[in-house]
């Protein structure tokens, strides 16, 4: 697995908020307890893309969780536009055409492209309803193998699939896991989850945690506890 010198880099705090000022205030409250933040749909569409360079200028890392998927040219040009922001990670859906287009758009920029295999809110019933013939675990493994062959930098998958994904992609690709919940917290709408300690034991490089931190009375303390739990 990639070596991470700062253990705080293993935690990605999800800024799933609808207001940029609120997100910036939360980053201030968390302080040096975290170094890595995720900006997804909700904040991005509320002006959050402008927050990326501001966080990067402070030495913080940003995970743009936009899950791009469209015709190849649209994905390629969209990724090319995003490379100027200074983000560290960007997600695309793990469809071969989409992944190849994202790499073309990224070019020589250091932005790492992560492929989303199957959403962690999906269980077997959800996958069948969406028309997937393969069991979730097999579909994740298939998409991880395609991502490896194409040259994607990392995989986003459920923690419970991390060991099988690692066996497919080898030691040098990143594994990033949403759906992480500290011991004793509510699972919310995530159906395939692990605690931070379990995720680290499973060989995961980065965990994404949102509501348990952002909704806490003391988000800095919760972030520190998660980093310690992973260590």
From TrEMBL:
<feature type="active site" description="Proton donor">
    <location>
        <position position="67"/>
    </location>
</feature>
<feature type="binding site">
    <location>
        <position position="210"/>
    </location>
    <ligand>
        <name>substrate</name>
    </ligand>
</feature>
<feature type="binding site">
    <location>
        <begin position="65"/>
        <end position="74"/>
    </location>
    <ligand>
        <name>substrate</name>
    </ligand>
</feature>
<dbReference type="InterPro" id="IPR014732">
    <property type="entry name" value="OMPdecase"/>
</dbReference>
<dbReference type="InterPro" id="IPR011060">
    <property type="entry name" value="RibuloseP-bd_barrel"/>
</dbReference>
<keyword id="KW-0665">Pyrimidine biosynthesis</keyword>
<feature type="binding site">
    <location>
        <position position="190"/>
    </location>
    <ligand>
        <name>substrate</name>
    </ligand>
</feature>
<feature type="domain" description="Orotidine 5'-phosphate decarboxylase">
    <location>
        <begin position="10"/>
        <end position="226"/>
    </location>
</feature>
<dbReference type="InterPro" id="IPR047596">
    <property type="entry name" value="OMPdecase_bac"/>
</dbReference>
<feature type="active site" description="For OMPdecase activity">
    <location>
        <position position="67"/>
    </location>
</feature>
<comment type="similarity">
    <text>Belongs to the OMP decarboxylase family. Type 1 subfamily.</text>
</comment>
<dbReference type="InterPro" id="IPR018089">
    <property type="entry name" value="OMPdecase_AS"/>
</dbReference>
<comment type="function">
    <text>Catalyzes the decarboxylation of orotidine 5'-monophosphate (OMP) to uridine 5'-monophosphate (UMP).</text>
</comment>
<keyword id="KW-0210">Decarboxylase</keyword>
<dbReference type="InterPro" id="IPR001754">
    <property type="entry name" value="OMPdeCOase_dom"/>
</dbReference>
<feature type="binding site">
    <location>
        <position position="211"/>
    </location>
    <ligand>
        <name>substrate</name>
    </ligand>
</feature>
<comment type="pathway">
    <text>Pyrimidine metabolism; UMP biosynthesis via de novo pathway; UMP from orotate: step 2/2.</text>
</comment>
<dbReference type="GO" id="GO:0005829">
    <property type="term" value="C:cytosol"/>
</dbReference>
<dbReference type="GO" id="GO:0044205">
    <property type="term" value="P:'de novo' UMP biosynthetic process"/>
</dbReference>
<feature type="binding site">
    <location>
        <position position="120"/>
    </location>
    <ligand>
        <name>substrate</name>
    </ligand>
</feature>
<dbReference type="Pfam" id="PF00215">
    <property type="entry name" value="OMPdecase"/>
</dbReference>
<dbReference type="InterPro" id="IPR013785">
    <property type="entry name" value="Aldolase_TIM"/>
</dbReference>
<comment type="subunit">
    <text>Homodimer.</text>
</comment>
<dbReference type="GO" id="GO:0004590">
    <property type="term" value="F:orotidine-5'-phosphate decarboxylase activity"/>
</dbReference>
<dbReference type="GO" id="GO:0006207">
    <property type="term" value="P:'de novo' pyrimidine nucleobase biosynthetic process"/>
</dbReference>
<feature type="active site" description="For OMPdecase activity">
    <location>
        <position position="70"/>
    </location>
</feature>
<protein>
    <recommendedName>
        <fullName>Orotidine 5'-phosphate decarboxylase</fullName>
        <ecNumber>4.1.1.23</ecNumber>
    </recommendedName>
</protein>
<feature type="binding site">
    <location>
        <position position="38"/>
    </location>
    <ligand>
        <name>substrate</name>
    </ligand>
</feature>
<feature type="active site" description="For OMPdecase activity">
    <location>
        <position position="65"/>
    </location>
</feature>
<feature type="binding site">
    <location>
        <position position="181"/>
    </location>
    <ligand>
        <name>substrate</name>
    </ligand>
</feature>
<feature type="binding site">
    <location>
        <position position="16"/>
    </location>
    <ligand>
        <name>substrate</name>
    </ligand>
</feature>
<keyword id="KW-0456">Lyase</keyword>
């Amino acid at each position: 697995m990639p070596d991470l010198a700062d253990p705080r880099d293993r935690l990605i705090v999800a800024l799933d908020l609808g207001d940029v000022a609120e997100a910036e205030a939360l980053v201030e409250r968390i302080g040096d307890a975290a170094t890595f933040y995720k900006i997804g749909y909700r904040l991005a569409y509320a002006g959050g893309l402008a927050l990326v360079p501001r966080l990067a200028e402070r030495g913080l890392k940003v995970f743009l969780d936009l899950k791009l998927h469209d015709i190849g040219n649209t994905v390629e040009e969209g990724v090319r536009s995003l490379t100027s922001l200074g983000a560290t990670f960007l997600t695309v859906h793990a469809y071969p055409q989409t992944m190849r287009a994202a790499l073309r758009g990224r070019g020589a920029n250091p932005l790492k492209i992560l492929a989303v295999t199957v959403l962690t809110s999906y269980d077997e019933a959800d996958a069948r309803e969406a028309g997937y013939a393969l069991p979730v675990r097999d579909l994740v493994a298939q998409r991880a193998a395609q991502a490896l062959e194409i040259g994607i930098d990392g995989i986003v998958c459920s923690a419970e699939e991390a060991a099988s994904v690692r066996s497919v992609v080898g030691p040098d690709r990143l594994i990033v896991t949403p759906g992480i919940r500290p011991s004793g917290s509510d699972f919310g709408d995530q159906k395939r989850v692990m605690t931070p300690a379990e995720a680290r034991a499973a060989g995961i490089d980065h965990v994404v945690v949102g509501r348990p931190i952002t909704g806490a009375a003391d988000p800095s303390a919760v972030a520190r506890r998660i980093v310690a739990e992973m260590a």
